[in-house]
Amino acid sequence: MARIENLNLSQRVTNELGQAIIGGHYTCDTGLPTEAKLCEEYGISRTAIREAVKMLAAKGLISSRPRKGIQVEPSSNWNLYDTSVLKWMLESSPSLLVLKEFLQMRMAIEPQAAALAAEYATDEDIAKIGEALEGMKASAKDPEKSFHDADLAFHTSILFASRNRFFFQLRDFISTALNVSIQHTTPAKGSIDSIVDEHNKVYQAIRSRQPERARNMIHYLIDEAMSFIEAEIASKKAK
After folding, report:
1. pTM of the predicted structure, to 2 decimals
2. Which end of the chain has less neighbouring CB within 10 Å, N or C?
3. Which CATH number is correct for 9-77, 3.30.365.10, 1.10.10.1450, 3.40.190.10, 1.10.10.10?
């Protein structure tokens, strides 16, 4: 393993070890190497290794107990709402299955958030959703502009517009997974114009203060994405 010599050593070790745990290189049965061994492998101090261990423990990936050393925790204990954990999971081989679970969660959250936005959002909140939609339209015509960023802004703006603080707290989590999900569903959809049109229907329902229509429109968006992911999973299984 290459030695780490740049700044933020603990974060870099955390990232590598986190990916290795989620990728199955280190398991509950094998555990992690000792602190001394990790120091040798990475060529850094024990202080930096201990900081990395603390960060991984906070994410639920490992635990450190007296006379038992560093133990890898089962996946049921991982903090899936931690954006780093989610990112590492999405980068691992079963990422499509993780995306399917993520879409199931979105189905439970976002339609309700859209309905609440239609009922409780301020005019400024709705304007932010409209700005994100305009960004999507602009990027459809200009390759230099980021369609993904505008799409992410659209969905997170709806979470904020719901005026439900718990929903808005999920923005980083949803953005992390959406960034990967969009890479699968946008090419499958084939037409950016049709994607923009469907998002516009969500926006218009919120803008016209129609909660049930807003709920149904965003439910349709997520259900369609689910169909693409399930088809991709089935295709991989058939090979």
Report:
1. 0.82
2. C
3. 1.10.10.10
